[in-house]
Amino acid sequence: MIERLCVIGVGLIGGSLARAVREAGFCQEVVGAGRNPQNLQAAVDLGVIDRYETDLGKAVSGADMVLVSVPLGAMAAVFDAISGHLAEHAVLTDAGSAKGSVIDAARQAFAGLPASFVPGHPIAGTEQSGVEASFAGLYRGRRVILTPLPETDGHALDLVRDMWEAAGAEVTEMDPLHHDTVLAATSHLPHVLAYALVESLASLSDDGEVFDYAAGGFRDFTRIASSDPVMWRDICLANGDAIQLMIEHFVADLQELTTAIENRDGQQLLDIFSSAKAARDRYVKE
Ligand code: NAP
């Protein structure tokens, strides 16, 4: 239980966390912060936050916990803006989809990594963005990965864990570099592929005729290509090395499949598809 939570970036991720912890009675007051007063007023009207500030220094002043949930490309500017304004006891955390770049940005803005900083990443989301898309149940039963560093204070880590558990999440810990490698495979590569497939098909004809004949499979495969382009640009820039490795690995596998089709090698195709089906069936059952 804390008194004041400050959420910088009251969109899908920050707004959902605010809704969930309010519902759970984890904090008495939620202060929202961001650039656009209209978005922030909408968050007040929706009952997501109690009040807001557009001056980030003012927003964090007196907060017990600060969650930064802005796009990765905005993290450095936000850390710069709040540096020197956090209360002495304040715990700082974030929700960024890549961890190495956020840790570097914090190290630079605060002239060394603050012991009270606990990097985090909720493995939950939708292809929608903005506070209107937020909902209290987003984290229920979902994983949140915290990537504490040797300098991270144990009390700060416990408090961030408590906050996500209050929102219904299952919290695990991971090394930041390992996090970025794993997420490049399981989340970043699939998003890049979904965007690439839709873009590639869209360029086949000017009138979008190809989409008139798309069925459920296409819709399922490409849902995540409706995600926010700014967020995904930032993720590709922030975690570029790991994503590039995954794309190279994938291209090699796709080449193998192409060769099997070229050779009309039915057995090879059956082997690849059967192995993939078994892997997905296992994943879906878990
Ligand atoms: P979102 O819905 O677009 O919300 C982002 C919020 O940040 C907006 O309310 C925006 O409000 C604010 N913002 C943007 N630039 C800012 C800046 N320079 N200074 C202050 N505020 C700024 O995005 P989201 O999906 O919640 O994602 C937020 C973070 O969570 C990202 O780092 C993303 O990588 C991570 N994440 C996303 C997902 C997902 O599936 N969506 C999942 C896990 C983690 P204003 O325009 O009013 O400033």
Tell me the count of domains: 2
What does the main sheet amount to? 6 strands, parallel
CATH topology of the largest domain: Rossmann fold
Gross CATH architecture of the largest domain? 3-Layer(aba) Sandwich
Order of helices and strands: EHEHEHEHEHEEEHEHHHHHH
| CATH C-level class of the largest domain | Alpha Beta
- Provide the helix percentage: 40-55%
Class computed from helices, strands and strand pairing: alpha/beta
Count of strand segments: 9
**How many DSSP H or I helices?**
12
Write up this protein.
It is a single chain. This protein has 2 domains: 2-174, NAD(P)-binding Rossmann-like Domain (Rossmann fold, 3-Layer(aba) Sandwich), CATH 3.40.50.720; 178-283, 6-phosphogluconate dehydrogenase C-terminal fold (Orthogonal Bundle), CATH 1.10.3660. The model has no long low-confidence stretch (mean pLDDT 97). It is built from 12 helices and 9 strands. Helix content is 52%, strand content 13%. By secondary structure, the chain is α/β, with parallel strands linked by helices. It has helices spanning 12-24, 37-45, 56-60, 75-82, 100-109, 154-166, 176-202, 209-212, 216-222, 229-238, 240-262, 266-285, and strands spanning 2-8, 27-33, 51-53, 65-68, 91-94, 117-118, 120-122, 143-146, 170-173. The strands form 2 sheets. Strands 3-2-1-4-5-6 form a 6-stranded parallel sheet. The relative contact order is 0.11. Strand 2, helix 2 (37-45) and strand 3 (51-53) form a beta-alpha-beta unit. NADP nicotinamide-adenine-dinucleotide phosphate (NAP) binds at residues 8-14, 34-36, 39, 69-72, 74, 77-78, 95-97, 121-122, 125, 129-130, 228, 231, 235.
